[in-house]
Specification:
By secondary structure, the chain is an alpha/beta fold. It contains ten helices and eight strands.
């Protein structure tokens, strides 16, 4: 699934209700769907995506590599014995969703897909078709306390046991005013020791200033503009957790066999583990 966050909300309050969508307004999830070769996009989304590709020709490959990172991450997490997953900002369905990757190793793995977009959630529910141990919930990353108390999550996920929270290509849609570090801390404070948080986040660290400005302009009219962050800034979001080697790195290289592809790193990515409470 591709990834998109919600509309602004307080950390404690309920996610705002979305009345519908405007096909003439570029949508971040549909732009990403276009980059991945999907079919759930409109003319405005295609125009924004093409503007992005003119600024950063590697953006389409970066989107595909980010999907490959997610697949490797889930495979690694299943190897650590994780059988519960919350995919926040899950977005429009794409090939090799989390539950398929997890259940290839643990057939009883439980997965919740969370997104703020009604259309995204409807797509996910149609895909899951009421299968046991799987759920899709409308919830907003900006309201983490509300998100983790949703009945669909509580009925599917046992937060008293280790769980993997997947924040794949979603945190860059939180502005500094949204305080993404605090959002993540609210979530991790409610996870059992031994849980994991996985993240991938767009960066402009390796883009020249002109390309970075043009990329931001491509998203300027979108439903939720992206906020690229540096490697150090992304690492700081998980600094209260125990990093999984090699820490925050080029997403293309994370636990990848063989050399990483050429070209600039457009996603920083990695994972961290929730430690046991200090005695």
């Amino acid at each position: 699934m591709t990834h998109i966050p919600g509309t602004p909300a307080s950390l404690a309050g309920p996610a705002p209700v979305q009345d519908g969508f405007d096909q003439t307004l570029p949508n971040s999830a549909r732009i990403y769907d276009y980059l991945l070769g999907g079919k759930d996009h409109y003319q405005a989304d295609r125009q924004a995506a093409k503007k992005l590709l003119r600024a950063v020709p590697e953006a389409r490959q970066a989107a595909l590599e980010n999907r490959a990172f997610l697949k490797r991450m889930v495979r690694w997490l299943t190897g650590q014995g994780i059988t519960q997953y919350i995919d926040i900002g899950s977005g429009l369905p794409a090939a090799h969703p989390v539950h398929e990757a997890a259940r290839a190793v643990h057939p009883a793995a439980r997965v919740v897909y969370a997104d703020h977009d009604d259309v995204v959630v409807a797509h996910a529910r149609a895909l899951l078709d009421g299968a046991p141990g799987l759920a899709a919930v409308r919830a907003d990353l900006r309201s983490p306390r509300d998100l983790l108390t949703r009945p669909e999550i509580r009925d599917t996920i046992d937060l008293g046991k280790p769980v993997a929270v997947l924040l794949i290509a979603v945190v860059h849609f939180l502005t500094c005013d949204d305080d993404p570090g605090q959002v993540i801390r609210v979530i991790t404070d409610r996870l059992a020791p031994g849980s994991y948080v996985a993240i991938s986040h767009v960066t402009a660290d390796h883009l020249d200033p002109g390309a970075a400005r043009a990329a931001r302009a491509a998203y300027a009219g979108a439903s939720v503009p992206a906020v690229p962050r540096t490697r150090a800034e992304v690492a700081a979001l998980l600094a209260h957790l125990d990093p999984v080697p090699p820490g925050i790195t080029d997403g293309r290289a994370w636990h990848r066999p063989g050399p990483r592809p050429d070209g600039p790193a457009l996603f920083w990515a990695g994972a961290a583990r929730v430690p046991a409470p200090a005695r």
